[in-house]
């Protein structure tokens, strides 16, 4: 049976790739991906055949992987983090036709960044991308508004770029309509890669920060606390003594 794997390779460090993802990549004949992600794993699998495309080459990547599978080749399409969270799994399934798609989960940035910061997502949370490349900004704005109104913690992906230098500030202004300026927030940059760093600050301070595509931003809820250099959003275990 023809099969293509959508593989989440995690944040970048091989130690944070799941065992299932590593096994699929070892066994695949062909690995297809954005050139930046290919460069992360090529040293681990130097003898594999690779197809690389630049950013925004998603459809081409999927098409070539599916074509290879049609010729009997075992192909893996790689994504950073998790293949189903802002990744290629959905597009592959849409384009698959008679080809079977197996999705191999990975560690997404909300998880890996949160681990560095402590436990910012210990209660209900929303994950929102600030990139308006494929989603209109008015829809992103509405999602931010509703998440803030509901007092959800948030993990913000793609918080800024050269063309979107003020998007994090715009997001903070929306959130500040419903959240205290003292709300605890955090930033995790280049998780498990060179230049890894984290910082914890108030929402007021965050609104003055710059961020790039390699940064994940965490917005706490009204219960989030700063403990040293960690963020903690309590679930309520100590208060209730139970989990319901």
List the helices and strands and how they pair.
Layout: E1 3-8, H1 19-27, E2 30-34, H2 35-41, E3 49-53, H3 58-70, E4 75-79, H4 89-95, E5 100-104, H5 109-117, E6 118-119, E7 125-129, H6 137-149, E8 153-157, H7 167-175, E9 184-189, E10 197-202, H8 203-206, E11 215-219, E12 225-227, E13 230-232, H9 237-240
Parallel strand pairs: 1-4, 1-5, 2-3, 2-4, 6-13, 7-8
Antiparallel strand pairs: 8-11, 9-10, 9-11, 12-13
> Which structural category fits the helices and strands?
alpha/beta
- The total number of structural domains is 2
Strand arrangement, largest sheet? Answer: 3-2-4-1-5
Rg, alpha carbons: 19 Å
Give the uncertain stretches in residue-range form.
none
| Series of H and E elements | EHEHEHEHEHEEHEHEEHEEEH
Could you tell me the number of beta strands? 13
The biggest beta sheet, please? Answer: 5 strands, parallel
Tally of DSSP helical segments: 9
What would you say this structure looks like, in words?
There is one protein chain. By secondary structure, the chain is α/β, with parallel strands linked by helices. It has 2 domains: 3-107, 3-Layer(aba) Sandwich (Cobalt-precorrin-4 Transmethylase, domain 1); 110-232, Methyltransferase, Cobalt-precorrin-4 Transmethylase, Domain 2 (2-Layer Sandwich). It is built from 9 helices and 13 strands. The protein has helices spanning 19-27, 35-41, 58-70, 89-95, 109-117, 137-149, 167-175, 203-206, 237-240; strands spanning 3-8, 30-34, 49-53, 75-79, 100-104, 118-119, 125-129, 153-157, 184-189, 197-202, 215-219, 225-227, 230-232. A 5-stranded parallel β-sheet has the order 3-2-4-1-5, with helices on both faces. Strands 7-8-11-9-10 form a 5-stranded mixed β-sheet, with helices on both faces. It has a 3-stranded mixed β-sheet with strand order 6-13-12. The radius of gyration is 19 Å and the shape is elongated. The N and C termini lie far apart (44 Å). The mean pLDDT is 94.
């Amino acid at each position: 049976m023809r099969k293509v794997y959508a593989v989440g390779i995690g944040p970048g460090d091989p130690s944070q790739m799941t065992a299932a993802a590593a096994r699929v990549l070892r066994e695949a004949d062909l690995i297809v991906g954005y050139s930046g992600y290919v460069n992360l794993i090529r040293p681990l699998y130097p003898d594999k055949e690779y197809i690389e495309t630049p950013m925004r080459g998603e459809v081409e990547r999927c098409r070539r992987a599916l074509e290879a599978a049609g010729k009997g080749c075992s192909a893996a399409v790689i994504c950073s983090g998790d293949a189903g969270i802002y990744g290629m799994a959905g597009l592959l399934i849409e384009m698959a036709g008679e080809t079977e798609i197996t999705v191999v989960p990975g560690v997404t940035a909300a998880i890996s960044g949160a681990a560095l910061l402590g436990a910012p997502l210990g209660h209900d949370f929303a994950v929102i991308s600030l990139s308006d490349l494929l989603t209109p900004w008015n829809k992103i704005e509405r999602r931010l508004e509703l998440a803030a109104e509901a007092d959800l913690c948030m993990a913000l992906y793609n918080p800024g770029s050269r063309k979107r230098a003020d998007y994090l500030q715009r997001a903070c202004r929306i959130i500040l309509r419903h959240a205290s300026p003292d709300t605890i927030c955090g930033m995790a940059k280049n998780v498990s890669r060179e230049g890894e760093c984290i910082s914890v600050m108030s929402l007021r301070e965050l609104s003055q920060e710059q961020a790039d595509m390699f940064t994940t931003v965490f917005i706490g809820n009204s219960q989030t606390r700063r403990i040293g250099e960690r963020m903690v959003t309590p679930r309520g275990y100590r208060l209730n003594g139970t989990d319901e």
